[in-house]
Amino acid sequence: MPKKILIIDDDADLLEAVSFLIEEAGYTTLLSVDGEIVSKLEEINPDLILIDQNLGSEDGTKLCKAIKENPQTNHFSVLILSGDENILELISACQANGFIKKPFVVKDLIMAIENHTNMA
User: Fold this and answer.
1) Where is the Response regulatory domain positioned along the sequence (predicted)?
2) Residue 110 lies in a domain
């Protein structure tokens, strides 16, 4: 059974493009344009969560922190997608498992996903 990747990004075009790339690599994707889906994490049970840092009205790192501070969801692996120069500080503050620097190269995206889903 393919591993499930939850992608949270407010840019619908980027969400679809990233989803396509990830599915081409053999994964199943679940898509969300906002953080409301976090309330269903236990039900969805993704193998990995990709969260864009800038979700328009929401901050992806705050969403990540909420996931990691909740005892019922802190076991989920989270990668932050960001072009911020201070990405290492951001992921440390929100307790993310890693990051994917934007703009990213497709093979680096897939490699990061492989690395973090194989750890689970």
Assistant:
1) 4-117
2) no
